[in-house]
Design a protein that fits this description.
- The chain is of the alpha+beta class and 156 residues long.
- Helix content is 36%, strand content 24%.
- It contains five helices and five strands.
- Strands 1-2-3-4-5 form a five-stranded mixed β-sheet, sandwiched between helices.
């Protein structure tokens, strides 16, 4: 098992895992990302999105896609985990824990204050995993989003 920062040649595997995540989250047609958009956002000259992958026997079986957020209260950046996904065949191998350990090392080594993420309310297997690694559910804050037509209207 090898966890490492993603490389440009991982883009097809990352896209495959993103599509598998969308199917798992009951939104298989929601992925609009392409190899080109992933390559640009992860590896372009102004990349602000990052990824770690995990390989088992030379095959990429998991991915963690993340970016920096910021806490005015701590005065330090944080790592926001956009997606963590391990292929079904690799679940139970420790791959998810290994990806989280790599992210924790990244956060500590870079001086980030914390790791934040969201989980779908129905995803009990993920919640059990997160509790098992010592994470806790945040309360008091509700997720909100501005996108699509509303985003376009606000921009005008």
């Amino acid at each position: 098992m090898i966890v490492r920062r993603a490389r440009t040649d991982d883009v097809p595997a990352i896209l495959r895992l993103i599509r598998a995540l969308a199917a798992y989250e009951r939104a298989p047609d929601a992925v609009h990302a392409t190899e080109q958009t992933l390559a640009a956002t992860l590896f372009g000259p102004d990349a602000r999105v990052f990824a770690h992958v995990i390989e088992i026997d030379g095959e990429v079986v998991g991915v963690a896609v993340w970016f920096l957020n910021y806490s005015t209260w701590t005065g330090r950046p944080g790592l926001y985990l956009e997606d963590l996904f391990v292929s079904e065949a690799a679940r139970g191998t420790g791959a998810g824990r290994a990806l989280f350990r790599a992210l924790a090392r990244e956060a500590v080594d870079q001086g980030y204050a914390r790791i934040d993420w969201a989980v779908l309310d129905w995803n009990e297997p993920a919640k059990r995993f997160y509790r098992a690694i010592g994470a806790r559910r945040q309360t008091g804050w509700e997720p909100w989003r501005l996108d699509g037509e509303a985003l376009e209207a606000m921009a005008r």
